[in-house]
Amino acid sequence: MPSIDDVTNAPDELSDDRADELLEEADLVQDMMGEVCPYPQVEAKKGLQKIDSGDLLVQETDHVPCTENVPRAVGDDADAQVWRSGDAVYRIYLRKQ
Amino acid sequence: MVATLLVAAVVGIAIGAFLQKGRFCFVNAFRDFFAYKDSRVTKGVLAATLLTMVFWGIAYQFGYYQGFWTPDWGLTGLLGGFVFGVGMTYAGGCASGTLYRAGEGYLQFWLTLLFMGVGYAGFTVAFPTLESTYFEALTFGTGATLFELTSVPGGLVALAVAIVGLLVYATLTGRSSTAAAFGERADVAQLNPTALLAPVVGLRQFGRGTAAYVRGLVRAWRTPIASSKQPWDPRTAALGITAAAVLWFSQVSIVGVTGPEARWTGYLLSQVGVDAASFDYWGSVLFQGQGVGVTVDMVMIAFVIVGAFVAALWSGDFSVRVPKRRRLPNAVVGGLMMGAGSRLAPGCNIGNIYSGIAELSIHSFIAAVGIVAGVYVMTHWIYRDVGCAI
Questions:
Q1: Fewer CB atoms inside 10 A, N or C side of chain B?
Q2: A1 pLDDT more than 50
Q3: Minimal Cβ distance to B32: which of A5, A7, A69
Q4: Contact call for residues B336 and B87 (beta carbons, < 8 A)
């Protein structure tokens, strides 16, 4: 469905099932609930430094702007996808390049 | 009076909703630009400021305005702005960002608001001393806006400034893209034509970007309900905030946040038995000797929180968020620095960057430099382990 998302550079959205599957295989999960910018961005960059190429870092957050800012912050270091629960909980999936 | 309160409610709700939907955050705008050159929100802030300037200039020219806010200028703007900039970066939200996040359910930002209040109260107590030692020593000139200083019609002045701003932006983006195209091999002989072409290349990119944005907007309108629940482009927020600000300018004043908040602090303290009017700063400066009560701008600011709450609820972004204990210093120290800094400047990011530049106030240009410098320094400190792009 076309939406205003087309102009906001938002990362790809994951379905509920796929999001749960990926969470199980995550190599590093960061609990960012209650945290606000820029700390999730800083932690994402630090986390990516710890894991190997191809590994998956997942951040669980309740801070909406993180779903855009964290993927932007890591840039080309990782492929980003997000999952929105629809209830103010979000997960950011970062696959290290 | 009822009509004015209605305007306050409409403007406040609109600003709160657009801030929330567009993630319109001044900390984000400058911090992320310094940290990793993300200029998305920065562009939204610049667009909102320049557009508001054009419309306010036109409104001023034809007399549809109530008044400007032009504090005396000097180093107070630079120092106070710097303290405010450091504070807002540490707190993770500017004056307007704190309001809309409070509406989204962040308990951390209610705490930030509380400590901004402590900052306002502390400043008020220290004001008699500060007046002679700080304000008199560091103030050099009477406050003024370029709109009133020139004999050129306000609308033209604003358009000229906006066009210069656009050309500078076009030159910068054009230069970075032509430099990228030529790569490392560009020598002196090639630099000259590219320097001349840069504004053209940049303007063409600006035109393409705007066209793409409008197409996206048109597409979004086909599914209004689904689109309204999605996050919005900061440029959409910029347009909405501009419309609200123009209505406010024609009916009440320029848009401010920390001034009304400092009045709220005095008013709330007076409700619990403090004689707020006996303090110079509340009595004669903020309430201008008219007694401590609820003013229309205080109502507007409160409705910003309501607007953000409604928008967040509608988008499924609302929830009561409990901060981690290690983030409490951010709210406490950041809030105090924002409260005190916004009084020392005076003015916050909205008063000085958004409204102040839009009304071409001399004081606000200085304060804006101070605020951005504060963000720059604090961003480097926060990103000290992972590095900044600028």
A1: N
A2: no
A3: A69
A4: yes
